[in-house]
Design brief:
Blueprint lengths: L2 E5 L5 H14 L14 H12 L4 E8 L4 E10 L8 E8 L8 H15 L4 E7 L3 H9 L3 E12 L2 E11 L1
Parallel strand pairs: 4-5
Antiparallel strand pairs: 1-2, 2-3, 3-4, 5-7, 6-7
Helix pairs in contact: 1-2
């Protein structure tokens, strides 16, 4: 398996939409139900182009070079407001076939490195309480629990709480 971690680019739009479709179908840990996302190719191209030129958004992808498949991503967004520009909200997802191989760790460390270089001192995320593998990864990386949102997400099986976790860098 020949894997590359790199910044996302506008030309990744179609592969990124395919990745989202896969993630939404493979797991309930992402925010969207299968087929719920309404992003068009043009919208995704625009979003990725804007991210490429932004000081406040960064997206890294996990690329399987052998298959030209995007296997995962990690994205961070911060406000442009002076009072909270130091804080980066993160989201990540990896196709099931690529989990358990340290790629999530690699993606998150890459985003943390970008954050350090861009005057971010706080990384934050939310994670469903039943996503034990992700929670273990975040704890391994030094994230701490800050609180729990009750009934934060409604799945087909019922409501699920979300932990808020953060790391100061």
């Amino acid at each position: 398996m020949n894997i590359n971690v790199r910044a996302a680019k506008e030309s990744d739009a179609a592969a990124f939409l395919d990745l989202w479709d896969a993630l939404d179908s493979e797991t309930e840990f992402m925010l969207y139900e299968p087929d719920e996302r309404q992003a068009s190719l043009e919208t995704q191209q625009s979003n990725l182009a804007n991210a490429e030129s932004s000081d406040n958004v960064q997206i890294f992808v996990l690329e399987d070079v052998d298959t030209d498949l995007l296997a995962g991503f990690c994205a961070g967004r911060r406000s442009s407001n002076l009072r909270d520009k130091h804080s980066l909200h993160m989201v990540a997802g990896i196709r099931q076939a690529y989990t358990g191989k340290t790629w999530g760790y690699t993606l998150l460390k890459e985003l943390e490195s970008w954050a350090r270089e861009n005057d971010v001192s706080r990384l934050e995320l939310s994670v469903m309480v039943n996503n034990t593998k992700a929670i273990a990864l975040y704890e391994k990386l030094g994230y701490k629990f800050e609180g729990t949102k009750i009934n934060a997400v409604k799945l087909k099986s019922g409501f699920v709480d979300e932990h808020i976790m953060a790391k100061l860098i």
